[in-house]
């Protein structure tokens, strides 16, 4: 009977709900993690996985772009080269002015008249050349003779000076008269003086004719301007003279 009477008490104790926890217990529970020592703390290990990215992937688009740019530049240079080859520069035709045409015609006339020059004119030119003294240009013809290079050099000197003294050496091939005639034909000049193996040749210069023509044109322009200035000055003086009598009258009236 005793055992049976104890059984309902045991059942009640077992079935009784536990009392609610107090505030002190709650605070102790809350502060328990801070009291735990550091060696009991569990820190999860940091896992570092090495990741190796392929370097070729980042540079592949750049290399492609570079290749495309090189292709474009090569094509552009090819196009430019084709344009430079195909495009021919325009040929500029120099139109001769009427003044230059007239000067060239007079020069040709003078050259044609050299052979028909009188002895008197030749003597005058020869004496004028001798009066120049050291100012007269002089050259020599040696063993090479009258070649093309010698003729071009003589023509250049004659173009600048019109008169030239030539000394023909003994080693020059050919007779003296033949050499002189060859000089006249090669240079288009005429002999105006001759002493021994030294000759003086004359050839009219085209550049000097142009310079003289320019001087003439400048003188004409100057004379025209001076005449216009004189006419304008005379007109001003006449206008001042016409306006002078009224002023003199007013001055005479003031004095009276």
Kindly list the characteristics that best describe this protein.
4 strands; elongated; four-stranded mixed β-sheet; alpha+beta; 256 residues; Translation Initiation Factor IF3
Summarize the structure.
The protein is built from 8 helices and 4 strands, in the order H-H-H-H-H-E-H-E-H-E-E-H. It has helices at 2-15, 23-35, 55-86, 98-113, 119-132, 148-161, 176-187, 206-255, and strands at 138-141, 163-168, 190-195, 198-202. Strands 1-2-4-3 form a 4-stranded mixed sheet, sandwiched between helices.
Structure description:
64% of the residues lie in helices and 8% in strands. With 256 residues, it is an alpha+beta fold. The protein has a domain at 101-204: Translation Initiation Factor IF3, CATH 3.30.110.60. A 4-stranded mixed sheet has the order 1-2-4-3, with helices on both faces. Strand 1 (138-141), helix 6 (148-161) and strand 2 (163-168) form a beta-alpha-beta unit. Helix 4 crosses helix 8. It is elongated, with a radius of gyration of 60 Å. The protein starts with a helix and ends with a helix. The relative contact order is 0.06.
Topology:
Blueprint: H1 2-15, H2 23-35, H3 55-86, H4 98-113, H5 119-132, E1 138-141, H6 148-161, E2 163-168, H7 176-187, E3 190-195, E4 198-202, H8 206-255
Parallel strand pairs: 1-2
Antiparallel strand pairs: 2-4, 3-4
Helix pairs in contact: 4-8
């Amino acid at each position: 009977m005793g055992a049976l009477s104890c059984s309902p008490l045991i059942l009640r104790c077992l079935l009784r709900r536990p009392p609610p926890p107090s505030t002190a217990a709650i605070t102790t529970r809350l502060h328990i993690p801070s009291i735990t020592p550091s060696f009991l703390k569990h820190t999860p290990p940091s896992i570092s996985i090495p990741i190796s990215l392929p370097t070729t992937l980042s540079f592949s688009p750049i290399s492609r772009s570079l290749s495309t740019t090189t292709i474009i530049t090569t094509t552009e240079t090819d196009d430019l080269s084709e344009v430079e080859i195909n495009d021919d520069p325009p040929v500029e035709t120099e139109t001769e002015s009427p003044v230059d045409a007239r000067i060239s015609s007079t020069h040709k006339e003078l050259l044609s008249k050299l052979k028909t020059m009188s002895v008197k004119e030749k003597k005058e030119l020869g004496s004028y050349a001798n009066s120049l003294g050291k100012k007269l240009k002089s050259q020599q013809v040696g063993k090479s003779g009258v070649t093309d290079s010698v003729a071009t050099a003589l023509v250049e000197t004659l173009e600048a000076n019109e008169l030239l003294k030539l000394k023909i050496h003994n080693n020059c091939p050919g007779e003296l008269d033949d050499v002189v005639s060859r000089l006249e034909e090669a240079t288009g000049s005429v002999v105006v003086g001759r002493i021994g193996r030294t000759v003086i040749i004359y050839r009219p210069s085209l550049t000097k004719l142009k310079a003289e023509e320019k001087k003439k044109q400048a003188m004409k322009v100057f004379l025209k301007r001076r005449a216009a200035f004189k006419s304008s000055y005379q007109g001003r003086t006449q206008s001042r003279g016409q306006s002078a009598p009224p002023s003199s009258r007013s001055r005479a009236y003031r004095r009276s």
